[in-house]
Protein backbone atom coordinates (compact mmCIF):
# COMPACT_ATOMS: atom_id res chain seq x y z
CA UNK A 1 0.00 0.00 0.00
CA UNK A 2 1.19 3.53 -0.78
CA UNK A 3 0.41 5.26 2.52
CA UNK A 4 1.11 8.73 1.13
CA UNK A 5 -1.60 8.52 -1.52
CA UNK A 6 -4.18 6.66 0.56
CA UNK A 7 -3.97 8.67 3.79
CA UNK A 8 -3.38 12.21 4.94
CA UNK A 9 -0.17 12.12 6.99
CA UNK A 10 0.13 14.35 10.06
CA UNK A 11 2.73 14.51 12.81
CA UNK A 12 1.42 14.40 16.36
CA UNK A 13 -0.14 17.74 17.33
CA UNK A 14 -0.68 19.04 13.81
CA UNK A 15 -3.57 20.22 11.63
CA UNK A 16 -4.49 20.27 7.94
CA UNK A 17 -7.35 21.61 5.81
CA UNK A 18 -10.32 19.28 5.83
CA UNK A 19 -10.23 19.54 2.05
CA UNK A 20 -6.93 17.64 2.15
CA UNK A 21 -8.50 14.66 3.94
CA UNK A 22 -8.86 11.82 1.38
CA UNK A 23 -12.51 10.77 1.00
CA UNK A 24 -12.42 7.24 -0.39
CA UNK A 25 -15.18 5.06 -1.83
CA UNK A 26 -16.32 2.93 1.08
CA UNK A 27 -15.09 -0.41 -0.30
CA UNK A 28 -11.62 1.07 -0.79
CA UNK A 29 -11.77 2.78 2.60
CA UNK A 30 -12.67 -0.45 4.35
CA UNK A 31 -10.04 -2.52 2.55
CA UNK A 32 -7.27 0.02 3.14
CA UNK A 33 -8.01 0.34 6.85
CA UNK A 34 -8.08 -3.40 7.39
CA UNK A 35 -4.82 -3.84 5.53
CA UNK A 36 -3.16 -0.96 7.40
CA UNK A 37 -4.04 -2.44 10.79
CA UNK A 38 -3.90 -6.19 10.17
CA UNK A 39 -0.93 -6.33 7.80
CA UNK A 40 1.04 -3.09 8.17
CA UNK A 41 0.86 -2.86 11.96
CA UNK A 42 -0.86 0.52 12.34
CA UNK A 43 -3.10 1.14 15.38
CA UNK A 44 -6.61 2.59 15.52
CA UNK A 45 -6.32 5.79 17.55
CA UNK A 46 -9.78 7.09 16.67
CA UNK A 47 -12.70 6.11 14.47
CA UNK A 48 -15.92 8.10 14.51
CA UNK A 49 -18.77 9.45 12.39
CA UNK A 50 -19.77 13.07 11.87
CA UNK A 51 -22.69 14.46 9.82
CA UNK A 52 -21.66 15.11 6.24
CA UNK A 53 -21.79 18.71 5.01
CA UNK A 54 -24.87 19.60 2.92
CA UNK A 55 -26.01 15.98 2.88
CA UNK A 56 -28.79 15.48 5.47
CA UNK A 57 -28.85 11.92 6.78
CA UNK A 58 -25.38 11.08 5.48
CA UNK A 59 -22.31 10.66 7.63
CA UNK A 60 -18.59 10.88 7.12
CA UNK A 61 -16.56 8.11 8.75
CA UNK A 62 -13.14 9.39 9.82
CA UNK A 63 -10.28 7.09 10.81
CA UNK A 64 -7.08 8.14 12.59
CA UNK A 65 -4.39 5.45 12.55
CA UNK A 66 -1.10 5.66 14.44
CA UNK A 67 1.93 4.69 12.36
CA UNK A 68 4.47 4.22 15.14
CA UNK A 69 7.38 3.30 12.90
CA UNK A 70 7.04 6.45 10.79
CA UNK A 71 6.06 8.60 13.81
CA UNK A 72 3.02 9.82 11.88
CA UNK A 73 -0.75 9.74 12.04
CA UNK A 74 -2.63 8.49 8.97
CA UNK A 75 -6.12 9.88 8.31
CA UNK A 76 -8.80 8.94 5.79
CA UNK A 77 -12.56 9.31 5.42
CA UNK A 78 -15.55 7.85 3.58
CA UNK A 79 -19.20 8.91 3.22
CA UNK A 80 -21.97 6.49 4.14
CA UNK A 81 -25.74 6.61 4.47
CA UNK A 82 -27.97 4.50 6.75
CA UNK A 83 -25.64 1.49 6.84
CA UNK A 84 -22.22 0.15 5.94
CA UNK A 85 -20.37 -3.16 6.07
CA UNK A 86 -18.67 -3.33 9.47
CA UNK A 87 -14.90 -3.63 9.70
CA UNK A 88 -14.93 -5.46 13.03
CA UNK A 89 -15.45 -9.00 11.73
CA UNK A 90 -12.17 -8.68 9.80
CA UNK A 91 -10.35 -6.32 12.17
CA UNK A 92 -11.32 -6.57 15.87
CA UNK A 93 -9.62 -3.26 16.76
CA UNK A 94 -12.63 -1.44 15.26
CA UNK A 95 -15.14 -3.41 17.34
CA UNK A 96 -15.74 -0.94 20.21
CA UNK A 97 -15.59 2.10 17.90
CA UNK A 98 -18.25 0.73 15.58
CA UNK A 99 -20.59 -0.10 18.44
CA UNK A 100 -20.27 3.51 19.58
CA UNK A 101 -20.91 4.81 16.06
CA UNK A 102 -24.10 2.76 15.82
CA UNK A 103 -25.23 3.94 19.25
CA UNK A 104 -24.59 7.64 18.57
CA UNK A 105 -25.65 7.99 14.94
CA UNK A 106 -28.10 5.16 14.26
CA UNK A 107 -25.95 3.90 11.40
CA UNK A 108 -26.32 0.15 10.96
CA UNK A 109 -22.97 -1.68 11.03
CA UNK A 110 -23.90 -4.68 8.91
CA UNK A 111 -22.27 -8.00 9.83
CA UNK A 112 -20.91 -6.63 13.09
CA UNK A 113 -20.34 -9.62 15.39
CA UNK A 114 -21.82 -7.87 18.45
CA UNK A 115 -23.78 -4.73 17.45
CA UNK A 116 -24.89 -3.80 20.96
CA UNK A 117 -24.64 -0.23 22.33
CA UNK A 118 -21.62 0.22 24.57
CA UNK A 119 -23.40 2.51 27.04
CA UNK A 120 -26.64 2.87 28.90
CA UNK A 121 -28.10 6.12 27.60
CA UNK A 122 -31.34 7.99 28.19
CA UNK A 123 -34.15 6.65 25.96
CA UNK A 124 -35.96 8.96 23.52
CA UNK A 125 -39.00 10.73 24.96
CA UNK A 126 -42.10 8.56 24.70
CA UNK A 127 -40.18 5.29 24.49
CA UNK A 128 -40.99 4.24 28.03
CA UNK A 129 -38.64 3.33 30.83
CA UNK A 130 -36.49 0.86 28.92
CA UNK A 131 -33.04 1.78 27.70
CA UNK A 132 -32.00 1.47 24.09
CA UNK A 133 -33.07 -1.76 22.34
CA UNK A 134 -30.57 -4.53 22.92
CA UNK A 135 -28.57 -2.80 25.64
CA UNK A 136 -29.71 -5.26 28.32
CA UNK A 137 -29.57 -8.35 26.12
CA UNK A 138 -26.67 -10.11 27.81
CA UNK A 139 -24.90 -13.09 26.37
CA UNK A 140 -25.85 -16.24 28.23
CA UNK A 141 -24.55 -19.81 28.31
CA UNK A 142 -27.14 -22.45 27.31
CA UNK A 143 -26.13 -24.94 29.97
CA UNK A 144 -28.07 -26.03 33.03
CA UNK A 145 -24.88 -25.94 35.11
CA UNK A 146 -24.16 -22.32 34.16
CA UNK A 147 -24.97 -19.43 36.45
CA UNK A 148 -24.73 -15.65 36.34
CA UNK A 149 -23.07 -13.33 38.79
CA UNK A 150 -24.04 -9.66 38.53
CA UNK A 151 -21.81 -7.02 40.14
CA UNK A 152 -22.78 -3.35 40.28
CA UNK A 153 -23.52 -0.82 38.95
CA UNK A 154 -23.59 0.44 42.56
CA UNK A 155 -20.32 -0.45 44.29
CA UNK A 156 -18.74 0.41 47.60
CA UNK A 157 -19.29 4.15 47.40
CA UNK A 158 -15.74 5.09 46.44
CA UNK A 159 -15.72 4.12 42.77
CA UNK A 160 -17.81 5.04 39.76
CA UNK A 161 -20.79 2.99 38.56
CA UNK A 162 -20.32 0.09 36.19
CA UNK A 163 -22.05 -3.25 35.72
CA UNK A 164 -20.19 -6.56 35.34
CA UNK A 165 -22.14 -9.67 34.26
CA UNK A 166 -20.23 -12.96 34.67
CA UNK A 167 -21.29 -16.20 33.00
CA UNK A 168 -19.79 -19.01 35.07
CA UNK A 169 -19.49 -22.77 35.35
CA UNK A 170 -18.76 -23.28 39.00
CA UNK A 171 -15.99 -20.83 39.92
CA UNK A 172 -14.70 -20.55 36.33
CA UNK A 173 -15.63 -17.47 34.31
CA UNK A 174 -16.64 -18.39 30.78
CA UNK A 175 -17.45 -14.85 29.72
CA UNK A 176 -17.57 -11.39 31.29
CA UNK A 177 -19.72 -8.64 29.83
CA UNK A 178 -19.06 -5.06 30.95
CA UNK A 179 -21.79 -2.40 30.74
CA UNK A 180 -20.95 1.27 31.24
CA UNK A 181 -22.52 4.66 30.57
CA UNK A 182 -24.28 5.30 33.86
CA UNK A 183 -22.83 8.81 34.10
CA UNK A 184 -22.63 9.78 30.45
CA UNK A 185 -22.17 13.56 30.59
CA UNK A 186 -22.15 14.56 26.93
CA UNK A 187 -18.80 16.38 27.18
CA UNK A 188 -18.03 15.99 23.48
CA UNK A 189 -21.34 17.61 22.54
CA UNK A 190 -20.75 20.49 24.96
CA UNK A 191 -17.40 21.20 23.28
CA UNK A 192 -19.07 21.81 19.91
CA UNK A 193 -19.19 25.52 19.14
CA UNK A 194 -16.07 26.24 21.20
CA UNK A 195 -13.48 27.00 22.20
CA UNK A 196 -15.02 29.15 24.91
CA UNK A 197 -14.56 29.83 28.60
CA UNK A 198 -15.90 26.38 29.52
CA UNK A 199 -13.85 24.28 27.14
CA UNK A 200 -10.67 23.81 29.19
CA UNK A 201 -12.68 22.98 32.32
CA UNK A 202 -14.75 20.41 30.45
CA UNK A 203 -11.59 18.82 29.06
CA UNK A 204 -10.03 18.55 32.53
CA UNK A 205 -13.21 16.88 33.82
CA UNK A 206 -13.26 14.22 31.10
CA UNK A 207 -11.31 11.97 33.51
CA UNK A 208 -10.42 13.77 36.72
CA UNK A 209 -7.34 11.65 37.49
CA UNK A 210 -5.96 12.56 34.04
CA UNK A 211 -6.41 16.34 34.23
CA UNK A 212 -2.84 17.29 33.27
CA UNK A 213 -2.68 14.92 30.28
CA UNK A 214 -6.13 16.00 29.08
CA UNK A 215 -5.40 19.71 29.37
CA UNK A 216 -2.04 19.32 27.62
CA UNK A 217 -3.58 17.27 24.81
CA UNK A 218 -6.19 19.99 24.31
CA UNK A 219 -3.63 22.80 24.50
CA UNK A 220 -1.46 21.18 21.83
CA UNK A 221 -4.47 20.68 19.60
CA UNK A 222 -5.34 24.39 19.90
CA UNK A 223 -1.72 25.26 19.15
CA UNK A 224 -2.06 23.37 15.86
CA UNK A 225 -5.10 25.51 15.01
CA UNK A 226 -3.97 28.95 16.22
CA UNK A 227 -0.56 30.66 16.42
CA UNK A 228 -1.80 32.53 19.50
CA UNK A 229 -1.94 29.23 21.39
CA UNK A 230 1.66 28.17 20.76
CA UNK A 231 3.58 27.33 23.94
CA UNK A 232 7.25 28.03 24.60
CA UNK A 233 9.79 25.22 25.23
CA UNK A 234 9.87 26.29 28.89
CA UNK A 235 6.11 25.83 29.17
CA UNK A 236 6.35 22.41 27.54
CA UNK A 237 9.08 21.40 29.98
CA UNK A 238 6.91 22.30 32.98
CA UNK A 239 3.91 20.54 31.43
CA UNK A 240 6.02 17.40 31.21
CA UNK A 241 7.05 17.74 34.85
CA UNK A 242 3.41 18.05 35.91
CA UNK A 243 2.45 15.05 33.78
CA UNK A 244 5.13 12.83 35.34
CA UNK A 245 3.94 13.82 38.82
CA UNK A 246 0.43 12.82 37.71
CA UNK A 247 1.73 9.51 36.38
CA UNK A 248 3.69 8.85 39.56
CA UNK A 249 0.72 9.55 41.82
CA UNK A 250 -1.58 7.22 39.94
CA UNK A 251 0.89 4.36 39.49
CA UNK A 252 1.69 4.55 43.20
CA UNK A 253 -2.00 4.46 44.09
CA UNK A 254 -2.60 1.50 41.79
CA UNK A 255 0.24 -0.55 43.26
CA UNK A 256 -1.00 0.21 46.75
CA UNK A 257 -4.52 -0.85 45.79
CA UNK A 258 -3.20 -4.09 44.26
CA UNK A 259 -1.37 -4.77 47.52
CA UNK A 260 -4.63 -4.21 49.36
CA UNK A 261 -6.52 -6.60 47.10
CA UNK A 262 -4.18 -9.42 48.18
CA UNK A 263 -4.24 -8.26 51.83
CA UNK A 264 -0.61 -7.10 51.85
CA UNK A 265 -1.16 -4.16 54.16
CA UNK A 266 2.38 -2.72 54.56
CA UNK A 267 2.67 -1.64 50.92
CA UNK A 268 -0.98 -0.63 50.79
CA UNK A 269 -0.56 1.79 53.68
CA UNK A 270 2.79 3.14 52.45
CA UNK A 271 1.49 3.77 48.93
CA UNK A 272 -1.62 5.50 50.21
CA UNK A 273 0.56 8.08 51.92
CA UNK A 274 3.11 8.32 49.09
CA UNK A 275 0.40 8.89 46.48
CA UNK A 276 -0.66 11.88 48.57
CA UNK A 277 2.92 13.16 48.50
CA UNK A 278 2.95 13.20 44.69
CA UNK A 279 -0.43 14.92 44.64
CA UNK A 280 0.92 17.51 47.05
CA UNK A 281 3.91 18.11 44.75
CA UNK A 282 1.42 18.94 42.01
CA UNK A 283 -0.42 21.22 44.42
CA UNK A 284 2.87 22.99 45.15
CA UNK A 285 3.13 23.78 41.43
CA UNK A 286 -0.37 25.11 40.89
CA UNK A 287 -2.45 25.04 44.06
CA UNK A 288 -4.50 21.99 43.05
CA UNK A 289 -3.63 18.39 43.84
CA UNK A 290 -4.99 17.18 40.49
CA UNK A 291 -3.40 19.98 38.47
CA UNK A 292 -6.64 21.73 37.54
CA UNK A 293 -6.08 25.07 35.85
CA UNK A 294 -2.29 24.68 35.50
CA UNK A 295 -2.00 23.88 31.79
CA UNK A 296 -3.58 26.57 29.61
CA UNK A 297 -3.65 27.20 25.85
CA UNK A 298 -0.39 28.97 25.11
CA UNK A 299 1.41 28.03 28.31
CA UNK A 300 0.91 27.85 32.07
CA UNK A 301 -1.11 29.70 34.68
CA UNK A 302 1.70 29.74 37.29
CA UNK A 303 5.50 29.83 37.44
CA UNK A 304 7.81 28.06 39.87
CA UNK A 305 10.93 29.88 41.08
CA UNK A 306 14.25 28.17 41.77
CA UNK A 307 13.52 27.82 45.48
CA UNK A 308 10.35 25.88 44.69
CA UNK A 309 12.28 23.73 42.21
CA UNK A 310 14.90 22.94 44.86
CA UNK A 311 12.15 22.04 47.32
CA UNK A 312 10.50 19.76 44.75
CA UNK A 313 13.81 18.03 44.02
CA UNK A 314 14.49 17.26 47.68
CA UNK A 315 10.89 16.21 48.22
CA UNK A 316 10.89 13.92 45.16
CA UNK A 317 14.13 12.18 46.21
CA UNK A 318 12.86 11.48 49.71
CA UNK A 319 9.49 10.21 48.49
CA UNK A 320 10.97 7.94 45.81
CA UNK A 321 13.28 6.34 48.38
CA UNK A 322 10.24 5.57 50.55
CA UNK A 323 8.37 4.23 47.52
CA UNK A 324 11.26 1.95 46.57
CA UNK A 325 11.23 0.41 50.02
CA UNK A 326 7.46 -0.13 49.91
CA UNK A 327 7.61 -1.77 46.49
CA UNK A 328 10.57 -3.96 47.43
CA UNK A 329 8.39 -5.37 50.20
CA UNK A 330 5.60 -6.09 47.71
CA UNK A 331 7.64 -7.70 44.96
CA UNK A 332 9.86 -9.71 47.32
CA UNK A 333 6.95 -11.44 49.06
CA UNK A 334 6.26 -14.94 47.66
CA UNK A 335 2.59 -14.97 48.66
CA UNK A 336 2.01 -11.75 46.68
CA UNK A 337 3.83 -13.06 43.62
CA UNK A 338 1.81 -16.28 43.81
CA UNK A 339 -1.43 -14.28 43.54
CA UNK A 340 -0.15 -12.00 40.73
CA UNK A 341 1.72 -14.43 38.51
CA UNK A 342 -0.29 -16.21 35.77
CA UNK A 343 -3.47 -14.43 36.89
CA UNK A 344 -5.57 -12.50 34.37
CA UNK A 345 -3.37 -13.23 31.36
CA UNK A 346 -3.91 -11.12 28.25
CA UNK A 347 -1.93 -12.81 25.49
CA UNK A 348 0.17 -10.50 23.27
CA UNK A 349 -1.72 -11.59 20.14
CA UNK A 350 -5.08 -10.76 21.75
CA UNK A 351 -3.80 -7.44 23.07
CA UNK A 352 -2.62 -6.45 19.61
CA UNK A 353 -5.80 -7.65 17.90
CA UNK A 354 -8.19 -5.56 20.00
CA UNK A 355 -5.90 -2.51 20.21
CA UNK A 356 -4.85 -2.45 23.87
CA UNK A 357 -2.81 0.63 24.83
CA UNK A 358 -0.70 1.94 27.68
CA UNK A 359 0.34 -0.04 30.74
CA UNK A 360 -1.88 -3.00 29.83
CA UNK A 361 -0.51 -3.10 26.28
CA UNK A 362 3.12 -2.84 27.35
CA UNK A 363 2.57 -5.60 29.92
CA UNK A 364 1.57 -7.84 26.99
CA UNK A 365 4.69 -6.94 25.02
CA UNK A 366 3.33 -4.08 22.87
CA UNK A 367 5.67 -1.15 22.25
CA UNK A 368 3.12 1.65 22.26
CA UNK A 369 4.36 4.51 24.44
CA UNK A 370 3.40 7.78 22.67
CA UNK A 371 6.29 9.59 24.37
CA UNK A 372 8.59 7.40 22.25
CA UNK A 373 6.58 6.55 19.14
CA UNK A 374 5.13 10.06 18.58
CA UNK A 375 7.37 12.25 20.77
CA UNK A 376 6.25 15.75 21.71
CA UNK A 377 7.42 18.67 23.81
CA UNK A 378 10.20 17.82 26.28
CA UNK A 379 10.12 14.12 25.40
CA UNK A 380 11.65 14.93 22.02
CA UNK A 381 14.96 15.95 23.63
CA UNK A 382 14.65 13.86 26.81
CA UNK A 383 13.23 10.47 25.83
CA UNK A 384 12.34 7.87 28.43
CA UNK A 385 13.17 4.19 28.22
CA UNK A 386 10.38 1.85 27.16
CA UNK A 387 9.00 -0.12 30.12
CA UNK A 388 7.51 -3.33 28.76
CA UNK A 389 6.95 -6.89 29.92
CA UNK A 390 5.64 -9.90 28.00
CA UNK A 391 3.62 -12.21 30.22
CA UNK A 392 0.45 -10.11 30.11
CA UNK A 393 -0.63 -11.12 33.64
CA UNK A 394 -1.32 -9.10 36.79
CA UNK A 395 2.34 -9.32 37.75
CA UNK A 396 3.43 -7.91 34.37
CA UNK A 397 1.00 -5.00 34.67
CA UNK A 398 2.30 -4.29 38.18
CA UNK A 399 5.93 -4.53 37.03
CA UNK A 400 5.33 -2.07 34.17
CA UNK A 401 4.01 0.43 36.70
CA UNK A 402 7.01 -0.07 38.96
CA UNK A 403 9.47 0.37 36.09
CA UNK A 404 7.64 3.47 34.88
CA UNK A 405 7.83 4.96 38.36
CA UNK A 406 11.62 4.59 38.25
CA UNK A 407 11.77 6.00 34.71
CA UNK A 408 9.57 8.98 35.64
CA UNK A 409 11.69 9.64 38.73
CA UNK A 410 14.88 9.73 36.66
CA UNK A 411 13.23 11.93 34.03
CA UNK A 412 11.91 14.32 36.70
CA UNK A 413 15.40 14.65 38.17
CA UNK A 414 16.81 15.74 34.80
CA UNK A 415 13.83 17.95 33.93
CA UNK A 416 13.83 19.78 37.27
CA UNK A 417 17.56 20.38 36.92
CA UNK A 418 16.92 21.81 33.46
CA UNK A 419 14.18 24.04 34.88
CA UNK A 420 16.71 25.70 37.22
CA UNK A 421 18.79 26.66 34.19
CA UNK A 422 15.98 28.56 32.47
CA UNK A 423 16.59 32.27 32.12
CA UNK A 424 14.17 34.83 33.52
CA UNK A 425 12.90 35.53 30.01
CA UNK A 426 12.39 31.82 29.33
CA UNK A 427 10.47 31.42 32.56
CA UNK A 428 8.26 34.40 31.76
CA UNK A 429 7.61 33.02 28.27
CA UNK A 430 5.99 29.97 29.86
CA UNK A 431 3.08 32.01 31.20
CA UNK A 432 -0.10 32.02 29.16
CA UNK A 433 -2.32 34.99 28.42
CA UNK A 434 -5.13 32.66 27.33
CA UNK A 435 -6.88 32.35 30.68
CA UNK A 436 -10.31 32.44 29.01
CA UNK A 437 -9.82 31.52 25.35
CA UNK A 438 -12.93 32.35 23.38
CA UNK A 439 -11.46 33.16 20.01
CA UNK A 440 -11.95 31.55 16.64
CA UNK A 441 -9.43 29.05 15.30
CA UNK A 442 -8.29 28.33 11.77
CA UNK A 443 -11.45 27.52 9.78
CA UNK A 444 -12.29 24.23 8.05
CA UNK A 445 -9.41 22.29 9.56
CA UNK A 446 -8.84 18.90 11.17
CA UNK A 447 -6.33 18.53 14.00
CA UNK A 448 -5.09 15.55 16.01
CA UNK A 449 -3.21 15.46 19.31
CA UNK A 450 -1.91 12.39 21.17
CA UNK A 451 -0.65 12.16 24.74
CA UNK A 452 0.74 9.30 26.78
CA UNK A 453 -1.55 9.71 29.77
CA UNK A 454 -0.81 7.53 32.78
CA UNK A 455 -3.21 4.80 31.59
CA UNK A 456 -2.04 5.02 27.98
CA UNK A 457 -2.75 6.75 24.70
CA UNK A 458 -5.13 9.72 24.85
CA UNK A 459 -6.35 11.01 21.47
CA UNK A 460 -8.15 14.29 20.74
CA UNK A 461 -9.48 15.08 17.25
CA UNK A 462 -11.16 18.37 16.34
CA UNK A 463 -12.85 19.57 13.18
CA UNK A 464 -13.51 23.30 12.80
CA UNK A 465 -16.29 24.88 10.77
CA UNK A 466 -16.05 27.78 8.32
CA UNK A 467 -16.10 30.22 11.26
CA UNK A 468 -13.24 28.55 13.13
CA UNK A 469 -15.42 26.92 15.80
CA UNK A 470 -15.47 23.27 16.78
CA UNK A 471 -18.03 21.45 14.66
CA UNK A 472 -16.93 18.07 16.01
CA UNK A 473 -14.69 17.12 18.92
CA UNK A 474 -13.75 13.50 19.58
CA UNK A 475 -11.92 12.23 22.67
CA UNK A 476 -10.63 8.66 22.92
CA UNK A 477 -9.56 7.94 26.48
CA UNK A 478 -7.16 5.00 26.93
CA UNK A 479 -9.91 3.20 28.85
CA UNK A 480 -12.00 3.14 25.68
CA UNK A 481 -9.42 0.82 24.13
CA UNK A 482 -8.89 -1.33 27.21
CA UNK A 483 -12.23 -2.25 28.83
CA UNK A 484 -12.72 -5.14 26.43
CA UNK A 485 -9.19 -6.30 27.23
CA UNK A 486 -10.22 -6.65 30.88
CA UNK A 487 -13.14 -8.84 29.79
CA UNK A 488 -10.73 -11.07 27.84
CA UNK A 489 -8.46 -11.61 30.85
CA UNK A 490 -11.35 -13.14 32.85
CA UNK A 491 -12.07 -15.95 30.37
CA UNK A 492 -11.16 -19.22 32.06
CA UNK A 493 -10.20 -17.36 35.24
CA UNK A 494 -11.53 -17.94 38.75
CA UNK A 495 -14.19 -15.36 39.58
CA UNK A 496 -12.42 -14.65 42.88
CA UNK A 497 -9.55 -13.19 40.84
CA UNK A 498 -11.70 -10.45 39.36
CA UNK A 499 -10.75 -7.75 41.94
CA UNK A 500 -7.02 -7.96 41.23
CA UNK A 501 -7.56 -8.32 37.47
CA UNK A 502 -9.79 -5.24 37.52
CA UNK A 503 -7.36 -3.24 39.64
CA UNK A 504 -4.40 -4.26 37.48
CA UNK A 505 -6.10 -2.38 34.61
CA UNK A 506 -7.74 0.33 36.79
CA UNK A 507 -9.73 1.80 33.93
CA UNK A 508 -11.81 4.95 33.96
CA UNK A 509 -15.60 4.74 33.87
CA UNK A 510 -16.19 8.45 33.25
CA UNK A 511 -13.35 8.64 30.70
CA UNK A 512 -15.21 6.03 28.68
CA UNK A 513 -18.53 7.90 28.85
CA UNK A 514 -17.92 11.16 27.04
TrEMBL record:
This protein's UniProt keywords: Oxidoreductase
Cross-referenced SUPFAM superfamilies: HydB/Nqo4-like, Nqo5-like
GO MF annotations in UniProt: NAD binding; oxidoreductase activity, acting on NAD(P)H; quinone binding
Domain NADH-quinone oxidoreductase subunit D: start-end pairs: 270-507
Top-rank lineage group of the source organism: Bacteria
Record keyword Membrane present: no
InterPro entries per record: ComplexI_49kDa-like, NADH_Q_OxRdtase_suD, NADH_quin_OxRdtase_su_C/D-like, NiFe-Hase_large
PANTHER family reported in the protein's UniProt record: FORMATE HYDROGENLYASE SUBUNIT 5-RELATED, HYDROGENASE-4 COMPONENT G
Protein name: Ni,Fe-hydrogenase III large subunit
Biological source species: Oligosphaera ethanolica
The organism's taxonomic lineage, starting at the top: Bacteria, Pseudomonadati, Lentisphaerota, Oligosphaeria, Oligosphaerales
Amino acid sequence: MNMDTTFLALPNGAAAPIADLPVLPFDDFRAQLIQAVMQDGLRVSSFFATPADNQPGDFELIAVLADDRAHLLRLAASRVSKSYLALSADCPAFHWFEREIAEVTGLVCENHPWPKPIRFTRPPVGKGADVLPGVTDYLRIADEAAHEVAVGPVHAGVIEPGHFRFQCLGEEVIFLEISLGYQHRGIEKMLVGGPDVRSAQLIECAAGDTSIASAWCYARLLAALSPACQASPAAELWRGIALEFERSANHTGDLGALAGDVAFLPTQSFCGRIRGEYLNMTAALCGNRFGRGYVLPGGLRYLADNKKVADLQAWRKRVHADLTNALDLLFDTPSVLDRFENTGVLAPADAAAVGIVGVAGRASGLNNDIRLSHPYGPYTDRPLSLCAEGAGDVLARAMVRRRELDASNQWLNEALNAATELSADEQTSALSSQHSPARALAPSMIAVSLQEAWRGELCHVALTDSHGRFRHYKIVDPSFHNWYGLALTLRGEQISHFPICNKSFNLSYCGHDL
